[in-house]
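[Meeting: bench + compute handoff]

Bench side (C.D.) handed over the final construct sequence. Compute side (W.E.) agreed to return the predicted structure before the next meeting so the bench team could plan truncations. Sequence as handed over:
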Amino acid sequence: MAAAGIAGVSAAVSEKQEFYQLLKNLINPSCMVRRQAEEIYENIPGLCKTTFLLDVVRNRRAGYEDPHPRVRAAACTTLGQMATDFAPSFQKKFHETVIAALLRTMENQGNQRVQSHAASALIIFIEDCPKSLLVLYLDNMMKNLHSILVIKLQELIRNGTKLALEQLVTTIASVADTIEEKFVPYYDVFMPSLKHIVELAVQKELKLLRGKTIECISHVGLAVGKEKFMQDASNVMQLLLKTQSDLNNMEDDDPQISYMVSAWARMCKILGKDFQQYLSLVIEPLIKTASAKPDVALLDTQDVENMNDDDGWQFVNLGDQQSFGIKTSGLEAKATACQMLVYYAKELREGFVEYTEQVVKLMVPLLKFYFHDNVRVAAAEAMPFLLECARIHGPGYLAQMWQFICDPLIKAIGTEPDTDVLSEIMSSFAKSVEVIGDGCLNDEQLEELGGILKAKLEGHFKNQELRQVKRQEENYDQQVEMSLQDEDECDVYILTKVSDILHSLFSTYKEKILPWFEQLLPLIVNLICSNRPWPDRQWGLCIFDDIIEHCSPTSFKYVEYFRWPMLLNMRDNNPEVRQAAAYGLGVMAQFGGDDYRSLCSEAIPLLVKVIKCANSKTKKNVIATENCISAVGKILRFKPNCVNVDEVLPHWLSWLPLHEDKEEAIQTLSFLCDLIESNHPLVLGPDNSNLPKIISIIAEGKINETINHEDPCAKRLANVVRQVQISEELWLECLSQLDDEQQVALQELLNFA
């Protein structure tokens, strides 16, 4: 729309009736009317748009009063949509006015539906509102929410009205979810009312309210943590158990079921191993729901037309006369139950052992449950966790279960049609291989897997060629390009999962897997050719990195395939490619043996050049740069005869600490411990002059959570600090160069290591 058109629209909506009509049209059942209204609305400047909406929501518009409730409800809905579409900038810009307006609207007792829409909009707004902004309004917000809760609870008791209360408890859950531990001061105010609602909402028409309130209680408990929640844990668990005992008498599509299922999972997270006592009460209804067969029907077209849209059926036309239908509400419950079984297996491990066999027999066939993607995702995700549980029964039982899982899992990789589900199946297979370890696949399984991975890689290249052809076609435009880019992202994501599977095989089989891998070698070499897109080169290099790390020194027989790509890609414009190349050069030094000496020598100047680049520490580049610093450290540590140590070591020390890549950071700190413990003169400096710098590096490692108390390196670093403390003068000099946060971090390290 032209500028004049926008000005005209702004002038038009400044009049009360015009703007109200616009909002009515936004919710008009007619698609044509609604589309025209949306076109007008989209061209109103954002600030004006928000101002108009807030005025309508607050029942105020330039002196006019009492807009129609439907208009106010539509304004609330539109604010919620903007909060979704423009998050988080919308929240950052309008948090003060939007929160205040929606809370006031929720307080207004004039119309339950408007209150409900305001609560719904507030939920959406809160979900993407930064915690730091939300806490600014916390006291006032919680006071208002509790006041409204008390009023709505009284209305429920007197009149049975529930619509606004349903949205209100969801709002409270959303606030708790966002502010987490900052909900603790308000816990004692809200929890009695929430429990009271669960006790009161026993009639059939209140089952959705009961379910949502149970959900809210579990969110609040998770937010405040076990210590605070324990004062009510027993009472809440009894409420849940009472509801649970009624589940057997509920209809399959009862809304309480899904809320109960999710609430139990949160209780498990809150209580940890203490939850195990309740598992036997929860697990059988879950398995029953997860095992439910879908409601399907083959109907004549006329019968389909007569069915109500609210019946929860979806239909696919099979021709002019018939349609295949499936009831979706039961599928959602089935998917949720499957996801919860995954959760319990993951969280409880030993406590879940007795259910492992029953659940694995349920889940494996669901890898082919094509009625619902999330059911197949849950089935795949469950496999490595179930294997972890089976391991507790011993190696024989584990091997037996793996043989039950393995073939269907491999076949699913080859047949799964949905990219998102396929990625989960491939990831699950990779994790399962790592659980089982060396020898997990027999010759037939390896052959089948090899054929599937080869087909995936060949398909990857073919799809890229087809996309290039489409870019040359006459109808090519920006919309087509966006679609092609989406396809490319899906293909690259599957490529990452191919890499994950190969990583699992290299890390478990070591060099024994290389003869099998050679059927894929030409395709992996093709990935790292200079003319390939950067994601291909990144993941191709990652695969060779794994070969070098896990199959050295045998990996050197492939050196001519990756030598120049590894070195040349150190200059690549894309930081992900540089990171993959730098990591490879580092593991060459660490694991590669003497054959890699000359390559390590060639790598040093390239690594140093990246590190010294002016923008090397920007957010975009820092991970790649830290991998370069780590690679230099590995060459100094494992291949010192390939480099002038006296020249490079002081530079390496000056580049520390590493902040972003935790794994590489701990590698550098471990090497630093070696150098200090050997009293290396270049590291300690003349008269120990480098010790203040070293102490600050250790402090930063603690602040950045690089140093894990369980890691042996933590104790070594703490001992370095204690050695420095022996000299009071030297220690005071070190402390003088540390800020308060660094000093606190050092003390924490000393307390725990």
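W.E. noted at the follow-up: Residues 1-17, 61-65 have pLDDT under 50 and may be disordered. C.D. will use this when planning the next construct.
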